[in-house]
Design brief:
There is one protein chain. With 208 residues, this protein is mostly helical. The chain is built from ten helices and no strands. α4 packs antiparallel against α5 and α9 runs antiparallel to α10. The chain is globular. The protein starts with 7 loop residues before the first helix and ends in a 5-residue tail after the last helix.
């Protein structure tokens, strides 16, 4: 099969998009969605404001694209870690490491908070977020997750593998946000301990 090589224009377009998204993340984290200015994003990226409109329809569009890009990037990281393991115990250890790394990223929870608040007030953006999440994980993935992590426990109080995974990221994001305000949570070792406890509880990992 012949692989098409990108020409100079396509490469520059990709580079511009990457630079704009990187700059957008900085500005959105610093100023929030409402306070972010497209001109500042363009300037930080070393591009003109027109370059933004050549890539994105609006500030909302670049904001949503940034969230989608980050989400897909994190999923790729998780899948790479899981691919290096061949056992259920190894998979659980790999997934634990992924969430511990996620807890180190202070920008991501802020972006998610901004995005979710924005989506709650804008029905079309909310639908776009729901489609993104549905495309990544649904109840139909229970068997796949059970093969990776072992089957969930049985009983009325049991938590499915899908619900456990869906719950981990919001809980960790909330913890990282609180750690930026609460001194008792600011120590990285404390956050690591709490993330481990959350992980063990949701995935019902036996005591080590």
């Amino acid at each position: 099969m012949t692989v098409k090589t990108a020409n100079k224009h396509e490469l520059r377009t990709r580079e511009t998009r990457a630079l704009l998204l990187q700059a957008a993340e900085t500005i959105f984290v610093r100023d929030g969605y409402e306070g972010a200015e497209l001109g500042e994003i363009a300037a930080l990226a070393g591009r003109t404001k027109g370059a933004i409109y050549a890539q994105f329809k609006s500030k909302e569009d670049i904001f949503l694209a940034l969230i989608e890009e980050r989400t897909h990037c994190y999923r790729a990281q998780m899948e790479k870690l899981l691919a290096e393991s061949t056992t259920v115990d190894g998979n659980i250890a790999a997934l634990r490491n992924f969430y511990l790394q996620l807890a180190e990223d202070q920008a991501w929870p802020l972006l998610l908070l901004e995005f979710k608040l924005f989506a709650m007030r804008h029905p079309e953006s909310k639908k776009r977020l729901q489609r993104l999440y549905a495309g990544m994980l649904s109840q139909n993935d229970e068997k796949r997750l059970a093969d990776i992590l072992g089957a969930a426990a049985k009983g009325k109080d049991a938590i499915s593998r899908v619900i456990a995974i869906q719950s981990l990221q919001p809980m960790i994001s909330a913890l990282v946000l609180e750690a930026q305000l609460e001194n008792n949570l600011s120590d990285r070792n404390v956050i690591k301990k709490v993330v481990n406890r959350i992980f063990d509880a949701l995935l019902e990992v036996p005591p080590r």
